[in-house]
Design goal:
Elements lengths: L1 E5 L2 E5 L4 H18 L18 H10 L9
Antiparallel strand pairs: 1-2
Helix pairs in contact: 1-2
């Protein structure tokens, strides 16, 4: 994710790799964060995620083993 300068301000750049990064790295990162606070994924009742688009939502559901459509 990044920015580029446009005539009317800043434009956002999104990598097509974001869903893959979510799918392959986010669970491990979240587990590490939670472990540092003596928690685990099983302690989480609800997920609140920035939508980021359908492919990212699908990747989030896959990464956290959430039933498909839960984050819809």
């Amino acid at each position: 994710m990044g920015w580029h300068v446009e005539d009317d301000g800043l434009g956002v750049l999104f990598s097509r790799d974001i869903p893959t990064l979510v799918r392959t790295r986010l669970r491990e990162a979240a587990q590490g964060f939670l472990a540092r606070h003596d928690l685990s994924l099983e302690d989480i009742d609800r997920f609140v995620c920035h939508p980021g688009g359908a492919k990212v939502v699908d990747a989030l559901e896959e990464a956290f083993a959430i039933p498909p459509g839960t984050l819809a």
